[in-house]
Amino acid sequence: MTVSVESLSELVVERVGFGIFVVDRDMNVLMWNRFMQDHSGLSAQQVVGQSLYAHFPELPRVWLARKIESVFQLGTFAFSSWEQRPYLFRFDHDRPITGGVDFMQQDCTFMPLMRDREVVAVCVTISDVTHVSIVQREREEAVAKLQEYADRDGLTGIANRRFFEARLRDEFTRWQRYGGDMSMLLFDLDYFKKINDQFGHGVGDTVLRVMTQRVAEVVRAQDTFGRFGGEEFALLLPCTPLADAMRVADKIRCVIADTPVEVLGTSVPVTASVGGAAAREGVPTYDVLINEADAALYSAKRQGRNRSVAFRR
């Protein structure tokens, strides 16, 4: 049996695993393959000869018209990735609902159909890349979570020292360039070793977590709260003069000390000492700011603990 090339071409177009349709310059449909029929629920007989928008009014008209017109004018291919526009048609997909996408994710190719060196129509192909998009999103989410874990302290969930110092460095650079105010606080829990020795490290860990939660509730969203290590913590206060920072320090001391931490029926009293420092002319690097806040913290401890001290030259 002899099969014509035209018949084979038509069979291939009908059976390929991606959508193919053709439109003229007025957006009238000239061809509509089986993929498009199966996913739209509209046969070629229903669509061909009519405006594409008659059956799909939800299509992005301005964007699509610009794409199609560019192919007619330039006679070159145009493309659209799902990363730029997730889909052209709101087709259902066969991936699990846990994939997090509502409609089939699509890559689109716009191909000029030429006759006598003139574009007479544009062929559009629709590729189902839902699986690819889901895998890529999952990979990106996994990388983001790994990055978040790398930036967070494992016990308390707040910023670790590495992330805190990176934020401090960036903020210090911004302050050097634009001026203004910037302060930081260092504080630690008084006699924390005694808590661990008397009640055990499990209770000590709970105290650290509870203290962290209390402090996190009184700091601003734009501040960076981090754990420096052990029972020592830091707070970065952008756009904040030292006087205001020390008021925050007193608030932190109060929220820590006002209520003992209840752990397994045991009431554990906790206080904190705080040292504060501010960026100012003559401070060359952010490391100096840390050292000054640290000096103020130890001054608070020497003065009897459970107090806030600002660094003064």
From TrEMBL:
Its EC number is 2.7.7.65. GO terms for molecular function: diguanylate cyclase activity. It catalyses: 2 GTP = 3',3'-c-di-GMP + 2 diphosphate. CDD domains: GGDEF (cd01949), PAS (cd00130). PROSITE patterns: GGDEF, PAS. It comes from Paraburkholderia ribeironis. GO terms for cellular component: plasma membrane. One of its GO terms (biological process) is cell adhesion involved in single-species biofilm formation. Gene3D superfamilies: 3.30.70.270, PAS domain. Residues 180-313 form the GGDEF domain. This is diguanylate cyclase. Residues 5-56 form the PAS domain. SMART domains: GGDEF, PAS. Pfam families: GGDEF, PAS. It comes from the Bacteria.
